[in-house]
Specification:
Radius of gyration: 22 Å
Strand content: 15-25%
Low-confidence stretches: 1-9, 12-31
Number of helices: 16
CATH superfamily of the largest domain: Periplasmic binding protein-like II
Mean pLDDT: 91
CATH class of the largest domain: Alpha Beta
CATH architecture of the largest domain: 3-Layer(aba) Sandwich
Structural class: alpha/beta
Shape: globular
Number of domains: 2
Number of strands: 15
Distance between the termini: 46 Å
Length: 434
Amino acid sequence: MGTTTPARLLVAVGSLIALTACAGTTGSTGGAERQIAVSTDVPKEPVTLTLAYTDDPPTKSLIDGFTKLHPNVTIKPQQTPFNDYIKSIKLAMSSDQPPDLAQYNPGAMSSLVPAGLVLDLGPWAKAYGWNDRFPPASLKVLTSDKTAKQFGTGALYAAPGALSVLGVFYNKSLVKQPPKSLADFETAMRQAKDAGHTPLSVGALQVGGFQVWNALLNVLGDVEQYRAWGYGQPNASIKTDAARKATETLTDWVGKGYIPAAANATADTDAQADFANGKSAFLITGNWAAAALEKKLGDDVGFFLMPSATGEPAKVASGASVAYAISAKTEHPNVAAAFLDYLSSPEAAQLQFDTGFMPVNTKVDLTGDGLSREIATAFTPVAQADGIVPFPDFASPGMIDKLTPGVQGLISGKTTTDDFLNTLQQAWDAHHGS
């Protein structure tokens, strides 16, 4: 890294628009275009960068890994709790001294991209060959048009530092082998219920409810229709046969007692604790829960992706990335880009894996076993086949505030399938235009 032949290109950074901290309004600063000579060289003189983030792990481990390779570079981390991150990063990036690097968030991008406050990374992607080093889907979800309303197209504004995936954890002391088809999964839940166990722990008070719906949606229909909706493509809709089938399947599971009656009053942490304490057979969540579950259950916890109706291996799964963008005002854009390139290295892959995430370099032979190995084995074919799709709350700002109560209504029987899907589409139309 940093020893390859320099690739020198010019990238223009458009006029910057500052966010006035005291009033929370936008106004033009009249900044001139800036020309950057793009290079893959890392200078030898001392360089200090700041990195604003919310997710740790893996951020600190990745910083340590990069600075070990480049001792002359210091990266100072600035962590903010998740609930405060969007507001704080908008203010920080529009200030006179913004962080050089910032963890990507689609909600924050809605103002940062149109204001020209983060760099288009296309020239560095070309110089480093990122299209061959990162899974295509992990980069595509970080591209957008200049309005930051349509994703999966336009310029690249961040690079992924670690990947996550939504799937099903199961208790091996209650379930002897992972189900191969959706019908097998339902049979396993019925058997768990008949044996006096909770079939599926669900924390519908928070995001756990719509994660069940999301996992079903991944395997019950046309992934391209869902991807178009998630990315905000013109005229896309969530009112599809697949979404209807996923919704009806969820309500069917409620009726059969597979989803607990108390799910709407259960937080995600409580649902996870119930599963970890052996009270349920299954838990649908992401690999971010793996470390805590393995610590509690040891060899008794396993993982699989939501099985398809046909029994064929899963080809699609919702996932996200801990990703980082570069400030348009940074004095060291090439060093910041070198850090992003490091995220696709074999060294970074092992750090990502060791901290409970999936590596962005899916071709690396990782050391490790147990639950993380099971997750990687399930996830790698999906990533390599471009089968990663965004979570549904990615579709528009505030969508999570429609998904959570919407699924609560399905579980309580107060919301119909049509009402649920219409509410989601209305929120989508309000942001993207019908």
